[in-house]
């Protein structure tokens, strides 16, 4: 049944991709500044592993993101590195959907440190490093600057808050952050997919998995954590969790193990 879901999901994702392409405005690409390329090459492992054609696509997507999404600092100055790490976090989950964008995002807000649910800083009892906004914060995503940077410090630890939150936003493209990626919404396909997720969660809880324990919090968090694994360590994920890898390959419309150098 899972194999059938994957095949069906691929077809729906293709339709999703085409629909999204129609909605993106034309953008006049320019060669990026050498300083930008240097930062991407140094800080973004995903970009560094791409071939030249892939790097040009990545650079174009970064330009489009920064031209269309506002980035605001709260009690912190926004640097070029901040902007490029935010844009890279956004571009990677959609890299398999050329020329696509996030319909539900208007602004990225960056704090100088972790925050709590009331957006107070340095609360020792609650440390939030990333969050997709809702209610009055609908259309916004929030990050702690140190956590955003830390996500790009280690290439293959499957722990990147930027990727994590943008995968949640990708998840929300079908209306809800529910762990069901765009293309798997129909009940006949969503239910087996969610059953598979909960099977994988049980493996983690039984300490029979290398997937980060944070994935056990909910099916939504499982999808985001698994997505981090998929984009940061695709060859390892493919070897250890082949069915999950194939599922994510269809969900994100990209074979990361093939695209990224081993």
TrEMBL record:
Species: Roseivirga pacifica
SUPFAM superfamilies from the UniProt entry: Metalloproteases ('zincins'), catalytic domain
Pfam family, any one: Peptidase_M90
One GO term describing the cellular component: cytosol
GO molecular function annotations of the record: aminopeptidase activity; metallopeptidase activity
Protein's name according to its UniProt entry: Peptidase
The organism's taxonomic lineage, starting at the top: Bacteria, Pseudomonadati, Bacteroidota, Cytophagia, Cytophagales
């Amino acid at each position: 049944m899972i194999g059938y879901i994957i095949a069906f999901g691929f077809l729906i994702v293709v339709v999703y991709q085409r629909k999204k392409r129609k909605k993106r405005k034309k953008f006049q690409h320019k060669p990026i500044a050498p300083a930008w390329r240097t930062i991407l090459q140094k800080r973004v492992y995903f970009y560094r592993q791409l071939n030249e054609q892939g790097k040009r696509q990545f650079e174009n997507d970064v330009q489009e993101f920064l031209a269309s999404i506002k980035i605001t600092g709260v009690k912190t100055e926004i640097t070029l590195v901040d902007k490029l790490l935010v844009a890279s976090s956004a571009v990677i989950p959609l890299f398999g959907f050329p020329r696509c964008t996030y319909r539900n995002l208007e602004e990225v807000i960056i704090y100088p440190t972790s925050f709590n649910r009331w957006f107070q800083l340095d609360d020792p009892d609650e440390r939030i490093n990333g969050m997709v906004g809702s209610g009055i914060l609908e259309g916004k995503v929030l990050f702690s600057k140190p956590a955003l940077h830390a996500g790009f410090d280690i290439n293959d630890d499957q722990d990147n808050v930027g990727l994590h939150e943008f995968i949640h936003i990708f998840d929300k493209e079908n209306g809800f952050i529910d762990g069901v990626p765009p293309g798997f919404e129909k009940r006949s396909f969503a239910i087996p997919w969610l059953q598979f997720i909960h099977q994988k969660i049980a493996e983690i809880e039984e300490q029979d998995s290398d997937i980060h324990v944070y994935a056990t919090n909910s099916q939504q968090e499982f999808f985001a954590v698994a997505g981090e694994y998929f984009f940061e360590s695709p060859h390892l994920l493919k070897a250890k969790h082949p069915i999950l890898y194939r599922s994510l390959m269809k969900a994100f419309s990209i074979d990361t193990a093939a695209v990224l150098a081993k």
